[in-house]
Amino acid sequence: MTKAKALRVLVVTLGYACVAIGLFHVLIGNAAIPGERSAGPTIDSLGRFFGAIFAGYGLAWLWAARRSPIPAAAVRWPAGVFLLGAFGRLLSLATHGWPHAFQVALGFIELVLSPVFLWPADAEEKALPVPAQGEAARRHA
């Protein structure tokens, strides 16, 4: 599989996963968080709100996947946000201790997968043939 094809598969897969996870949190609230069914209405409200945000984040990945070529910036920015989420989990671990094992697994995936998106981020842009100088000027006119 080429780097460009791998990029497209990764972007689409993460996009659909984030939309599904986000909507799952919006629809079932606290029950979507392992061990937190009785967290109360404040955490339920917060979780459903962030579920909607996460679904929107997934839609941003899917928007990027619909571009041809996929712009490197449309991969790098959301991958950076994904990595920031992993750092947030590490900060929580440092200040409050170990969460549910499922949350630890998610943090590990976020920490490892974020850089994987950065590696092929410009693969499709680089795969395009370089236009002749006159052709490039006509396209931008």
Total E-strand runs: 0
N-C termini distance: 36 Å
Radius of gyration: 19 Å
> Which outline best applies?
elongated
What is the typical, i.e. mean, pLDDT? 87
Strand content: under 5%
What can be said about this structure in brief?
The chain has one domain.
Q: How is the secondary structure organized here?
A:
Blueprint: H1 3-28, H2 41-65, H3 72-96, H4 101-118, H5 123-127, H6 133-139
Helix pairs in contact: 1-2, 3-4
Word description of this protein:
With 141 residues, the protein is an all-alpha fold. The chain has one domain (3-122). It is built from six helices and no strands. The chain has helices at residues 3-28, 41-65, 72-96, 101-118, 123-127, 133-139. The longest helix has 26 residues, at 3-28. It is elongated. The two termini are 36 Å apart. 18% of the residues are buried.
